[in-house]
Amino acid sequence: MKSEVFKQQKPLKAKILSVIVAVFSVLILLVSTGSIIPRILFFCVSMVVLGYSISYEIKENFLNRKHFSVFGVKIFSTALKLEYPDYISVFSTSSSINNEWGAIAAIGTKERHDNIVVRFFTDNRNFTLYRTNNYEEAFRKATTLQKILNIELYDNTKE
Length: 159
Description:
Structural class: alpha+beta
Distance between the termini: 35 Å
Shape: elongated
Number of helices: 3
Order of helices and strands: EHHEEEEEEHE
Number of strands: 8
């Protein structure tokens, strides 16, 4: 059965914080003189946080899956319930996120992203499948998906 997998990007701040926690856990594991079991457990949890990823698998029969992986090894997957799309759209977008409160604000209060996005559209509803900075990769994945599902593909990046 034909399918296409769309790995979701982690936000930059999540990557930074997970690396900081991983480095901290390695230091605690090596330097601390306390009990070894909590140190190993903290290290393992930090590695899971650092290496987790989510991917959407869109299948030809539209029995789609959401995969949860750690360092590329699939841990488990669940059904991904989506409406069958009328069409697929590839377009460029710019978005910003405000982080006015909490621990994330220490890293910066505004985060801006310019991405190429692949989305399903059904009537007035949409579902974002993929975000990337690489137009060729996004268009290739969207074209493959268009062939698998036999639906229209609109490239709105040139507008």
